[in-house]
């Protein structure tokens, strides 16, 4: 193989690896949404009014971008960033080269290329430093994410007569959703789903507080009123009134199918009866952590053979697709209409959810847990049904 052909192959391989993962949708999102989001973040601390239109608006936005970027940098990097932009502007000046002459020596200097090179070097230096900082933060967030994963169930406990399917997706590196199936000392099963306010680290910390408090509450008194009261006090004492958590707590007796439950501001779980009817479990209540005392009443229902319970966080029904339409609770009800195992229904819901999003990134965490009671195996499909 000739050197020229080898170089062509190496270049082709490098370009393919360098551009791997980049597609038309990503570029569309970059210019349609990411740029607008970046400008909104840089301009959110300004209280002056933006000019309506024209050249004044262009100058205003240029100033906002410059100051917004500058003040997000450390002081030394800020100075290098400003000097790099000044050098780039000087490089645009078209003037005669500077002539330095002596009796026996004449030197001609054209500063434009030097200014551009110095400008590029300065900007690359600032970009490199910021990227290194981001890598360090990302590594720390990855550790926090792994710790959070340890708080969520990799496998739920096996309960005789019940089948479960579950999954969890985060919008950011660290999420605020929480769910679990936990055995209690008296042999019952605690079924919980929660959603901490906000996103990222703050929501993750709130979720960790709820996890630790819940496990203590189950040892003390697993009844819904007692658990909800203890969780509410713990979250309220965090001291930040913006820190709250929606929560559904159910206490299931596997032998009888009785489910005592309380819902604090969380989307109501859907209970599909074996006969096809769908019920909502819950009444309107405030989330946990908003008041020092929260009166959340407990209700009771019973899971019969063939009944199916679906619990989820609001990131599922409230997800907006490309057409601006939310996924919606009615769509969830329709997806529950067709019978199937918990895993089948779980996968059906997420498939419809992904089709609805159309490749749009998640803006909120999504939790889905499907549980059914099955005392007897379902009847096999009839031959006529299998042929259709």
Tally of domains: 2
Can you summarize the main beta sheet?
Answer: 5 strands, antiparallel
Strand content: 15-25%
Specify the CATH architecture of the largest domain.
Answer: 4-Layer Sandwich
Helix-strand pattern, N to C? HHHHEEHEEEHHEEEEEEHHEH
> Going across the major beta sheet, what is the strand order?
3-12-11-8-9
How much helicity do the residues have?
40-55%
Stretches where pLDDT is under 50 for at least 5 consecutive residues are 384-388
What is the overall pLDDT average?
83
CATH class annotation of the largest domain: Alpha Beta
Total of helices: 10
Approximate shape:
elongated
Distance between the termini: 57 Å
What topology emerges from the helices and strands here?
Elements (H helix, E strand, L loop, with lengths): L2 H16 L5 H20 L11 H16 L4 H17 L6 E4 L4 E4 L1 H41 L10 E8 L7 E7 L5 E8 L3 H21 L3 H13 L8 E8 L5 E7 L5 E3 L5 E3 L18 E4 L5 E5 L16 H9 L4 H16 L8 E8 L9 H5 L1
Helix pairs in contact: 2-3, 4-5, 6-7
What does this structure look like?
- The protein is α+β, with helices and mostly antiparallel strands and 388 residues long.
- It has 2 domains: 33-144, no CATH class; 157-373, PPM-type phosphatase domain (Phosphatase 2c, domain 1).
- The protein is built from 10 helices and 12 strands.
- The protein has helices at residues 3-18, 24-43, 55-70, 75-91, 111-151, 200-220, 224-236, 329-337, 342-357, 383-387; strands at residues 98-101, 106-109, 162-169, 177-183, 189-196, 245-252, 258-264, 270-272, 278-280, 299-302, 308-312, 366-373.
- The protein has a 5-stranded antiparallel β-sheet with strand order 3-12-11-8-9, covered by helices on one side. It has a 5-stranded antiparallel β-sheet with strand order 4-5-6-7-10, covered by helices on one side.
- The chain is elongated and about 85 Å long.
């Amino acid at each position: 193989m000739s050197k020229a052909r080898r170089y062509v192959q190496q270049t082709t391989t490098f370009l393919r690896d360098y551009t791997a993962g980049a597609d038309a949708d990503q570029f569309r999102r970059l210019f349609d949404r990411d740029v607008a989001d970046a400008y909104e973040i840089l301009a959110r601390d300004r209280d002056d009014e933006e000019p309506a239109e024209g050249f004044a608006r262009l100058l205003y936005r240029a100033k906002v971008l410059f100051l917004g970027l500058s003040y997000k940098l450390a002081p030394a990097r800020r100075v290098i960033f400003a000097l790099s932009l000044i050098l780039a502007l000087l490089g645009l000046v078209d003037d005669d080269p500077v002539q330095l002459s002596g009796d026996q020596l004449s030197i001609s200097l054209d500063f434009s290329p030097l200014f551009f090179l110095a400008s590029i070097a300065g900007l690359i230096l600032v970009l490199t430093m910021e990227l290194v900082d981001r890598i360090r933060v990302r590594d720390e967030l990855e550790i926090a994410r792994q710790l959070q994963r340890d708080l969520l169930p990799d496998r739920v406990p096996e309960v005789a007569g019940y089948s479960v399917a579950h999954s969890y997706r985060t919008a950011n590196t660290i999420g605020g959703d929480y769910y679990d199936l936990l055995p209690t000392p008296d042999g019952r099963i605690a079924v919980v789903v929660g959603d901490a306010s906000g996103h990222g680290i703050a929501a993750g910390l709130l979720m960790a507080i709820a996890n630790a408090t819940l496990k203590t509450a189950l040892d003390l008194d697993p009844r819904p009123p007692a658990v909800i009261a203890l969780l509410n006090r713990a979250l309220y004492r965090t001291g930040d009134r913006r820190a709250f958590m929606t929560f559904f707590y159910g206490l299931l007796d596997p032998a009888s199918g009785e489910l005592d439950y309380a819902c604090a501001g969380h989307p109501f779980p859907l209970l599909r009866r074996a006969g096809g009817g769908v019920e909502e479990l819950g009444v309107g209540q405030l989330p946990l952590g908003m008041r020092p005392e929260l009166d959340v009443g407990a209700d009771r229902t019973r899971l019969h053979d063939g009944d199916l319970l679906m619990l989820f966080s609001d990131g599922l029904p409230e997800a907006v697709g490309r057409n601006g339409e939310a996924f919606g609770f009615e769509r969830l009800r329709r997806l529950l209409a067709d019978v199937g195992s918990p895993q089948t229904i779980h996968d059906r819901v997420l498939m419809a959810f992904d089709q609805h999003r159309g490749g749009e990134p998640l803006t909120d965490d999504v939790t889905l847990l499907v549980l059914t009671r099955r005392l007897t195996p379902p009847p096999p499909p009839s031959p006529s049904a299998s042929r259709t």
